[in-house]
Amino acid sequence: MLETVPIDVSPTRSAQHALLEAVADIAPIATNLGALCTCRQLSYKLLIADLRGYDAAPWLMLAGTFASERAKAEDGPALALIVDSAIVPGGCDLLDDGVFVGPPEAAVFARERRQAPGLIAECGDAAAIEVSRGDLTQLGAMLDLSDRDRFDPSGWVRQQLNIDAAKLPWRGKEEVCATWLAKNAPARLTHRVWRGHVSVMFPWLAEALSAFLHKHASELPTTVPDKHAGNPIRREDFEWGDIVYALSGRHQTQADRAHRIRLVRNSLAHRRPLSWQDACRAKQDVEALLAWT
Fold this sequence. Notes:
By secondary structure, this protein is α/β, with parallel strands linked by helices. 47% of the residues lie in helices and 12% in strands.
């Protein structure tokens, strides 16, 4: 999961010194810019420098060097410069008033564009990232949509008049623009939406399951039968379907909630994106189960 790391941009220190200082505790081995840009310990770290109100020129020069060094390795951090206005140096991407160096999807985690925090908003962000596949103009437009429209942005994509067949660099491969997929290969567009949903919902459902088993162990049997293998399944290994079995008849309301969560999990497992309604209901069901006393 991507983690944001703020940089102290005080004018009393150089841009490079501030950048190195920001990661000193996380990656002590990153003692120079080259080492920092290719440091595996800094993978999935988004380094953010908010330069609004400051002189951005030194940072823009540093960003160009950062981009060149970062391209030498697969692993390493991403750098985001939030500026009032600037000329984008080579190797950088521009999204509204932010200059982003590194994976384009890191842009959304700068939190500058998110309308509201929460699970459903994060799902929408992830879907927009996957659908846009590096088209930052398109990503910027999707981030302006409501949470509901952004949750599955394929409807918005289909309404766009410009069918772009341009190839987009994405994670070492060339990808086709979403507008072209909407007209020529809609199943591939749906798959992109699913990738966004599953990246957020699967870990969240797993954490919710673990929390439920820990909190309500006394309400659950120590084992349930495995209808496939015949061996008993231990409580610590229960999945949502096992919880349905364990609660049915005794706590039917909770069993029904677990059943709906199981359907959502299975839908994602079979590569089907969620509807807005199903995701919202799953969130309500999980919250109700965890609050159950």
